[in-house]
Amino acid sequence: MKASHFDYVRVQSVEDAVRVMADSDGEARFLAGGQSLIPALNFRLDRPGLLIDLNAVTALSGIRREGDHIVIGALTRHAEVERHPLIAAHLPLLAEAVQHVAHSAIRNRGTFGGSLALADPAAEMPACALALRAVIHVQGPKGRRSIPADAFFEGSYATALAPGELLTEVHIPLPDPAARHGFAELTRRRGDYAMAGLALMAGPEARVVWFGLADRPLRDLGAEAALAQGPHAAAAAALDGVEVWGDLHNSAETKVHLARVMIRRLLERMT
Ligand SMILES: Cc1cc2nc3c(=O)[nH]c(=O)nc-3n(C[C@H](O)[C@H](O)[C@H](O)COP(=O)(O)OP(=O)(O)OC[C@H]3O[C@@H](n4cnc5c(N)ncnc54)[C@H](O)[C@@H]3O)c2cc1C
């Protein structure tokens, strides 16, 4: 299918993007990599009156170190995250996980910020943001604010972004040097969204985050508490009392079983 008619404007700054959005009365959408938005328009799942193209806003791109944080601009392509030396050196969880985002053609266009703003519950980047204690910076008609990843993902394709707010950059604290990471996902074919996925930080400030199991990335406090007791204990504690969703291919019970096997095997590989 083809998208319905829309107007198009290519903005040059964050301020312009926010202003044009505010003037649109909710009729506009930000266009980043277009890897999710354009298919949605073509299927007429969305019919905005205006696309605000962010691609000329250079201030939104790039990866830098600021003190004890790595800062990733919203418009940074998945491919840049994948090969950036700061990510490889300090955030190996992200370096590994991003290789599982779709295929290289999509990673060349799709953006880190677009993935967080979209908040697909089976996507890798939101889960990593939660596991890495990211803080999401946004700018909107009422000014700037920052939102911890713990409060950002509110449901299926739902975030704490208020109407008209633009995600500008993501600040990720450097993990403790003693921290180790683990990442695993189960997909029907390589490059597909996950049926079940796990992003994990072990050591000080451990975090266990599942994706593809519910309406948002899920932090598993029970598994985190059991991590120090070994892979079997963590697997037994995983997802205890957590509501998991089935999907077209697997029941909720199957997903819980797969997830427990996944965390046990991942921890066995890590120890
Ligand atoms: C075939 C295929 C397979 C894929 N497989 C995977 C996969 O396995 N894992 C995965 O994680 N993703 C996958 N994707 C999605 C891909 O990673 C997208 O690039 C990503 O989810 C959205 O990023 P984008 O830059 O393309 O955003 P866009 O498509 O441009 O935008 C997506 C949404 O986010 C909003 N948005 C974008 N940027 C901002 C911003 N800075 N501030 C506020 N709102 C913003 C847009 O308005 C829109 O609503 C796949 C896509 C395709 C087409």
Write the layout of secondary structure elements.
Elements: E1 7-10, H1 14-23, E2 28-31, H2 37-42, E3 50-53, E4 63-66, E5 69-73, H3 78-83, H4 85-90, H5 92-97, H6 104-109, H7 112-118, H8 124-131, E6 135-140, E7 143-148, H9 149-152, E8 153-155, E9 158-159, E10 166-173, E11 180-186, E12 196-202, E13 207-211, E14 218-219, H10 221-226, H11 231-237, H12 252-270
Parallel strand pairs: 1-3, 2-3
Antiparallel strand pairs: 4-5, 5-10, 6-7, 6-10, 8-9, 11-12, 12-13, 13-14
Helix pairs in contact: 11-12
This protein binds flavin-adenine dinucleotide.
In short:
The chain has 271 residues and is α+β, with helices and mostly antiparallel strands. Helix content is 34%, strand content 25%. It has a 5-stranded antiparallel beta sheet.
Structure characterization notes:
This protein has helices spanning 14-23, 37-42, 78-83, 85-90, 92-97, 104-109, 112-118, 124-131, 149-152, 221-226, 231-237, 252-270; strands spanning 7-10, 28-31, 50-53, 63-66, 69-73, 135-140, 143-148, 153-155, 158-159, 166-173, 180-186, 196-202, 207-211, 218-219. It has 271 residues and is an alpha+beta fold. Strand 12 and strand 13 form a beta hairpin. The protein starts with 6 loop residues before the first strand and ends with a helix. Helix content is 34%, strand content 25%. Helix 11 packs antiparallel against helix 12. The strands form 4 sheets. A 5-stranded antiparallel beta sheet has the order 4-5-10-6-7. A 4-stranded antiparallel beta sheet has the order 11-12-13-14, with helices on both faces. The longest helix is centred in the C-terminal third of the chain and has 19 residues, at 252-270. Bound molecules: flavin-adenine dinucleotide. Flavin-adenine dinucleotide binds at residues 29-37, 39, 74, 101-102, 106, 110-111, 113-115, 117-118, 120, 123-125, 166-167, 192-193.
